[in-house]
Amino acid sequence: METKAYLVHGKELDSLQYPEGCPLNTSRAGKACRMLASMNLLIGDGKEVVEPRRAERAELEKFHTARYLDALQRGAEGKMDEECFDMGLGTPDSPFFPDMYNYPAWGAGASLVAAELILDGAQVVFNPSGGFHHAAAELAGGFCYINDIVLASMLLADAGRKVMFIDIDVHHCDGVQDAFNVRNDIMTFSMHESGKTVFPGTGFVDDMGEGEGKGYSINVPLPVGVYDEAYEHVFKDLCSPLVGAFDPDVIVLEIGMDGLAGDPLAHLNLTNNSYADVISTVLGFGKPVLATGGGGYHVANTARGWALAWTVLSGESGFDDALLGLGGVMMESTDWQGGLRDRALVSYGSQRDSVDRELEQLTKDVKSKIFPLHGLC
Ligand SMILES: [Zn+2]
User: Fold this and answer.
1) What CATH code is carried by the domain that includes residue 283?
2) How far away, in angstroms, is 344 Cα from ligand 1 center?
3) How far is the CA of 132 from the centre of ligand 1 (A)?
């Protein structure tokens, strides 16, 4: 059978680790793969796992400066200096650790493999060990050292592809937006919890790109407490017309799972059902999709969310996942043993009303500022 969907994962991405106690846990991707394998949903029927590679230094220099990559390397060897600190290294959210060059280089290599597969004609590729959207050319931040999304998008754009980057991580994709802020051949669309309440404090509606890129950076800063139906509605209402107007050749999709209720670093009220819904909507645009992981600091929920994401990305969404919690399947989660999908979350009328009011204003604001720039009204 012809391969329809590729997942990029290998032993290096499983074994290299951030330091003990760091909220970002690199075991999430491997856990998702093992969960899928135990359910017979990882490979077969048009699904394939491909090996990543470590990105070459020259590939990393397409975006990051030599000075910064040298500093990463020195930090990895335990030689910290003032220049390292100036570039955001050595903070609680970008700590020094032995694999601080190696792991991001493998993560970036995996996203480059994904981009190469897309250029070879693949329709769907997923790198759950990618999505480091905060890293800038010369600055680490938010557990991100090397921006694999920028590198993969540049590879696609350099090959003449029009790229739409859609980010559903709970944090604003500041590193990616900054990289493409003045370009109109790469559109970025980010739905995130407002910078008023979480890191990195950016990504407001007025922050819409500059020069030729004006209107090509779209930010949808969400209020605390957004719930599934509201989230799905806003995504369809705003993203679908923009995809239609921009008409990209390829979609890069960052699937950070930190929007899930209970994530220790954010305050949205989503279940993974809304992630599945948004991924289905994105597949429905009919473009090749390069999907990555991203944030997600409740390890078990994130792994299960990405396992569910793979079933949707690989076209398994028709399976009866109510059955998947049966038969002794090990879910690696103490929260819920009923399948890959979360239970629906109850939210109360007054909470919904206040979220709904804020979202109505927000969507009006985005539409009035962005839509006319793309011939939409
Ligand atoms: Zn995040």
Assistant:
1) 3.40.800.20
2) 22
3) 9
Q: How many domains does the chain have?
A: 1
Report, as residue numbers or ranges, the catalytic residues: 134
CB-CB contact of 238 with 205 (8 Å): no
pTM surpassing 0.90? yes
Alpha carbons 301 and 110: distance in angstroms, whole number: 23
Distant-in-sequence, close-in-space partners of 16: CB < 8 Å, separation ≥ 6: 26, 99, 102, 103, 106
Amino acid at 231: Y
Residue 181 alpha carbon to ligand 1 centre in Å? 20
Q: Identify the domain containing residue 216 by its residue range.
A: 5-374
Q: What is the pLDDT of residues 258-295, one digit of tens each?
A: 999 999 999 999 999 999 999 999 999 999 999 999 99
Q: In this structure, what token pair is assigned to residue 229? A: 């139906």
Helices marked H in the chain = 11-15, 27-38, 57-60, 66-76, 82-86, 102-119, 148-158, 174-180, 228-246, 272-284, 299-313, 349-370
What is the tens place of the pLDDT at every residue in 142-163? 999 999 999 999 999 999 999 9
